[in-house]
């Protein structure tokens, strides 16, 4: 289990630069433990930011450079009731329409997205579990990258791929 007293720090090295995250294991213990397990397993290494919407968010953690979806572990319980808000520079779990479907995919909020906070539009919202402490300029650079269409996503896919070269605990 993750120590909840000390923030967990993760370095996302990307083709656009480095992003340092501070994860809140006290307020989102299951989500942080899940994310840390994916980091330790090397799951994020070589994956792309596959959905980028300026002013909204940048999303990654699920697809490789050929847009093949990477296998994941079972979904986790949604911890969106933890009091953390989807503000610019926070990291949250991506999910489907099912509230408890988050596995490996995450997004970094590029803007303040209050409508994603608990209870959201579906009674749950999206679980924030940390924030960018260094590299918000890299998040901005990724958010400002030109996007287009690519299978299987349709639109909002970076024309030039942004790759997570590694994710490491620091």
Write the layout of secondary structure elements.
Blueprint (H helix, E strand, L loop, with lengths): L7 E7 L2 E7 L5 H12 L6 E7 L3 E8 L25 E4 L12 E4 L18 E7 L1 H8 L3 E4 L3 E5 L4 E7 L1
Antiparallel strand pairs: 1-2, 1-10, 2-7, 3-4, 3-10, 4-6, 5-6, 5-7, 8-9
Organism: Hydrocarboniphaga daqingensis
InterPro entries: Cyclophilin-like_dom_sf, Cyclophilin-type_PPIase, Cyclophilin-type_PPIase_CS, Cyclophilin-type_PPIase_dom, E_coli_cyclophilin_A-like
GO biological process, one term: protein folding
Describe this structure in words.
This protein is mainly beta and 170 residues long. The chain has one domain: Cyclophilin, CATH 2.40.100.10. Helix content is 12%, strand content 35%. The chain contains two helices and ten strands. The protein has an eight-stranded antiparallel beta barrel with strand order 1-2-7-5-6-4-3-10. It has a two-stranded antiparallel ribbon with strand order 8-9. Strand 1 (8-14) and strand 2 form a beta hairpin. The longest helix is centred in the N-terminal third of the chain and has 12 residues, at 29-40. The two termini are 17 Å apart.
